[in-house]
Amino acid sequence: MSPHRISPVRRVDRSERGAALLTVLMLVAIIAVLASAALEKLRLSTRLAGNAAAGEQVRAYAYAAETMAVTRIGSMLGANPKRVTLAGGWSDRPFGLPLPGGGFATARVRDGGNCFNLNGLVQRTSDGVYATRGEQRPVFVRLMRLLQVPVQVAEQIASGATDWIDTDQDQQAMGAEDGAYLGRDPSYRTAGTLMSDPSELRAVAGMTPAIYTTLRPWICTLPIADPAPINVNTLLPEQAPLFVMLLPDTLSVEAARQLILKRPPQGYGATSEFFKGAALQGAADAGAEGQTAVVSKWFALDIDVTLGTTQVQERALIDATRLPARLVSRQWGEPS
């Protein structure tokens, strides 16, 4: 029987050893990249989940501030339903809501009806359509003139805004219906219904960013097809143009400001009392008195919440046309 022969050990070439080492290193690099990507996704997911939770938490605190504001407005109107004044310093005064962890929520309430309601340019008819309210267009034009908007541009914007809201396609003089916008790039159509936000005015023919910036503090879009009655008890001296716009060029802004400054601390019990002072300056106007009030029915609410590194801002509108008052719209972020 022949002895068992052992095969000689095969020597591995250096180039093969180098290739194997390179392969191992490449595998290690690929695994490291995959692990890094997985960890980054995990960190991102964790961060997003944390941000979402924090966002929901601060929004919940904002809702709590809403409830506090609505309750305060209801209490104020319940105590004196026939007169709303600035007594007590409630207007634009911040009231806080301390939060756990050092956070804080601040809310401010002010009269939300002392403005020109763009939706008052139309009226709702018995068959449910929006038709032009002719007497409001000149009021809007006067407001723009008082704010130094050129007359011709003001006429175009007022007519265009009315055409934007009304239901029909009958273009007013200097106005614009669908045909004026379909040729633009991009093209669009008029709304044919009430504006939901003042920023819609930016799409109206004749409007420019500069004019919109000028008009924004003076306009609003209440969810009603009626003019916003100006409360002569809460109108601020710097808001005098909102009263002057109601009159056919018979009172200066400075004269109106002086009338507001002479207002008694307890306010007026009736608009006729305020107009007696205006009449002394030759500015009596029955139509204007019908667009004023001594009670506020709409309130604007601003809420700012900070919790750690998370912040949220809310702008809301409260309807107090009947009690209990209720919040009818909210917008997150800076006003447009």
Automatic annotation (TrEMBL):
Transmembrane feature ranges: 20-39
Domain of life: Bacteria
The keyword Transmembrane is assigned to this record: yes
GO cellular component: plasma membrane
First-listed, main subcellular location of the protein, grouped into a coarse class: membrane
Residues annotated as domain T2SS protein K second SAM-like: 230-293
Pfam families: T2SSK, T2SSK_1st
Keyword Transmembrane in record: yes
InterPro entries, per the entry: GspK, GspK_central_sf, Pilin-like, T2SSK_SAM-like_1st, T2SSK_SAM-like_2nd
Biological-process GO terms, alphabetical: protein secretion
Domain T2SS protein K first SAM-like positions: 114-223
Keywords: Cell inner membrane, Cell membrane, Membrane, Protein transport, Transmembrane, Transmembrane helix, Transport
Cellular location(s): Cell inner membrane
Family from the record: Belongs to the GSP K family.
Protein name: Type II secretion system protein K
Protein species of origin: Sphingomonas ginsenosidivorax
Top-level taxonomy: Bacteria, Pseudomonadati, Pseudomonadota, Alphaproteobacteria, Sphingomonadales
